[in-house]
Design goal:
Layout (H helix, E strand, L loop, with lengths): L1 E5 L15 E6 L2 H10 L4 E4 L2 H8 L5 E4 L8 H8 L11 H12 L3 E7 L10 E3 L2 E5 L19 H8 L11 H6 L4 H11 L15
Parallel strand pairs: 1-2, 1-4, 2-3, 4-5
Antiparallel strand pairs: 5-7, 6-7
């Protein structure tokens, strides 16, 4: 299967996918892309604009995963904005542009992941773990346990949990990079949902919309 992994980061979502698929990853930060490439050398890495790449290449893939930037939708940033700590910003509407585009024009399976926003989502989604998911296949619920509290976890905590060692990389903000990762177990679960390979006894069934 040909997979497009947009806004790939260091590849938390992709970590348990194995090497049976042909995967193209798109990431705009060079150093972040270097981490991804070192971890997944068989994948094709495109350093560039994921939003632009999607509209130009979507027909080439069987499954598309997209994780557009989330800070302008986040409840955490909205709380900070309310205290005057952060400059107010319009929500980045690339999220909804991609949902509408894929839902209407893409013939394969697709999923878009983002944070639970500070507003009521403009398009209904399914909640799994601490994220919202939009897609054109049934996504079942799965509980993910973390061995630490996110607001007090260290880089080492996240590295151990996610299976990364970022000590040799010059990332601008390692803790943010790690926090932005989709948990590998969640990434595998979503892919299995797309492939209809879910063990029913391990999940609570649900519908996307």
């Amino acid at each position: 299967m040909k997979i497009l992994n947009l806004y790939a980061g260091i590849g938390g979502n992709r970590k348990l996918w194995g090497d049976e698929h042909e995967i193209t990853a798109v990431e705009n930060d060079t150093e972040t892309a270097r981490v991804y490439t070192d971890c997944f050398p068989n994948d094709i890495m495109v350093v560039g604009d994921a939003h632009e790449y999607l509209i130009n290449h979507y027909k080439e893939y069987d499954f598309i995963w997209s994780s557009p930037p989330c800070p302008t939708h986040s409840r955490l940033n909205a709380t900070k904005n309310g205290r005057g700590d952060v400059k107010m910003e319009y929500p980045d509407m690339k999220l909804y542009q991609e949902i509408i585009f894929l839902d209407n024009w893409f013939k394969g399976k697709w999923v878009i992941e983002n944070v639970i926003p500070y507003y009521t989502p403009l398009i209904a989604a399914k909640k799994v773990d601490r994220h919202l998911w939009w897609g054109n296949f049934n996504i079942t619920y799965k509980e993910i346990n973390r061995p630490f509290k996110m607001d007090t976890a260290t880089v080492k905590d996240y590295e151990d949990f996610l299976g990364y060692d970022l000590s040799g990389y010059k990332l601008e903000n390692k803790i943010k990079t790690l926090r932005n990762c989709v948990i590998p177990e969640t990434g595998l679960h979503i892919l299995n949902c797309a492939l209809d390979k879910i063990e029913s006894e391990n999940v609570k069934q649900g519908t996307l919309f």
